[in-house]
Design goal:
Order of helices and strands: HEEEEHEEEEHH
CATH topology: Nucleoside Triphosphate Pyrophosphohydrolase
Radius of gyration: 18 Å
Strand content: 35-45%
Shape: elongated
Number of domains: 1
CATH superfamily: Nucleoside Triphosphate Pyrophosphohydrolase
Helix content: 25-40%
Mean pLDDT: 92
Number of helices: 4
Largest sheet: 8 strands, mixed
């Protein structure tokens, strides 16, 4: 009986109760340098680990425009050509300030950087650095994001 209840919980009830992942958008900012493509990585505010600019969709903006807004606020990307469709996605658990975790799916938009500013909204809160996609892939934690970086 216990095995039947456990199976029913795992296969029927639990999936019904699970909320769908929340959606974020990200900008994979890149440029072509002397040695090939380079990506612009930033540090997160909380842990200081390397990430790409990302955030919640912005009311009144589509996915690419929301991603570009995040690239401006978090990395100083003033002007870029952004893909209309996502080039990939990754999933992760977002830890909120109150200690709860929330599953998130992040759509990744490619953004070819044309203009970068030194003064931007979160400049004092983050570091940014151009690096090879391969190096960036070794620094991020999310396997799906690693794959997208390696394919760039």
């Amino acid at each position: 009986m216990t095995r039947t209840l456990t199976r029913a919980w795992e296969e029927i009830v639990k999936p019904l109760l699970r909320r769908p992942n929340r959606l974020q958008v990200a900008a994979l900012c890149y440029r072509t340098g002397e040695s090939g493509k380079e990506v612009l990585m930033i540090t997160s505010r909380g842990t200081g680990r390397w990430i790409i600019p990302k955030g919640w969709p912005i009311d009144g903006k589509n996915g690419p425009d929301s991603a570009l807004q995040e690239a401006w606020e978090e990395a100083g990307v003033r002007k870029a050509r952004v893909s209309e469709r996502p080039i990939g996605e990754y999933n992760y658990m977002k830890r909120h300030d109150n200690g709860t975790d929330e599953p998130v799916t992040t759509l990744i938009f490619a953004a070819e950087v044309e203009e970068l500013e030194d003064s931007y909204p979160e400049a004092a809160e983050r570091n940014r650095q151009w690096m090879s996609p391969q190096e960036a892939a070794t620094l991020v934690h999310e396997p799906q994001l690693q794959d997208v970086l390696r394919k760039l």
